[in-house]
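Quick one, tokens below. Sequence please?
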């Protein structure tokens, strides 16, 4: 039954992408812009956007990075034989934007290694702009736990013992903003609680941060907050932090 649900979900995603393609195709007909800039271009949705734009003879496409990249993320990878020839992004090639904006040199290397072209490194990263002027509290008293969109249970199970072994420490668990987890199913000890506050509000109070692949880890490193990376034996570590010092 679980396999049937997985297949059904895959068909739904394919159908949903095709519906979005037809809608976007109709809208683009009425739009003329100097540049088309969008993120998630490495994913199915983003590749659909690239395909639709190029199929509509709109080639001034710019994809920008939306979070930490890693050589271990296969979705970035493109075979040499899959890369488009000139402006042809159709059945025999993978849709990729004509240029890419990367957040740092390491990410640029990931893109170039994966076949992307015209990769430029941003001088400032818009999604991290709140970090540039942030000031940490003098007396930071919380241990912040962060989870990404797909590693909640891993982070929860891995930090539960740490929370229990340190009853005098105050822990704040910050799930991904788009997480749909029913937190009542995952109770926390008395010295810990879940939070929906903006990550900026929590980071200024944090003396340490726990997480696996969440982008908050690199943000904490930028602020020189102690980072504790959660490893899970038998599971590929998707974090880019272990690859180089960001």
């Amino acid at each position: 039954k679980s396999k049937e649900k997985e297949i059904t979900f895959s068909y739904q995603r394919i159908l949903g992408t095709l519906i979005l393609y037809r809608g976007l195709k109709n809208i683009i007909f009425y739009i003329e812009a100097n540049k088309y800039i969008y993120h998630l271009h490495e994913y199915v949705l983003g590749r659909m956007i690239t395909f639709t734009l190029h199929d509509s003879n709109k080639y001034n496409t710019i994809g920008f990075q939306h979070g930490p990249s890693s050589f271990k993320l296969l979705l970035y990878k493109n075979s040499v034989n899959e890369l488009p020839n000139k402006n042809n992004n159709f059945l025999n090639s993978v849709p990729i934007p004509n240029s890419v904006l990367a957040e740092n040199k390491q990410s640029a290397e990931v893109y170039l290694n994966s076949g992307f072209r015209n990769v430029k490194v941003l001088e400032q990263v818009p999604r991290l702009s709140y970090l540039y002027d942030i000031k940490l509290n003098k007396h930071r008293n919380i241990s912040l736990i962060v989870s990404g969109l797909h590693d909640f249970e891993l982070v929860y199970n891995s930090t539960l013992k740490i929370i229990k072994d340190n009853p005098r420490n105050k822990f704040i668990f910050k799930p991904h903003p788009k997480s749909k987890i029913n937190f009542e199913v995952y109770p926390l000890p008395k010295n810990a609680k879940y939070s929906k506050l903006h990550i900026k509000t929590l980071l200024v109070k944090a003396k340490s941060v726990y997480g696996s692949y969440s982008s908050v880890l690199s943000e904490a490193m930028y602020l020189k907050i102690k980072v504790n990376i959660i490893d899970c034996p038998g599971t590929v570590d998707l974090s880019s932090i272990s690859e180089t010092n960001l």
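The CA atoms of residues 225 and 232 lie 22 Å apart. The helical segments are 2-28, 44-55, 105-113, 152-165, 199-203, 216-222.
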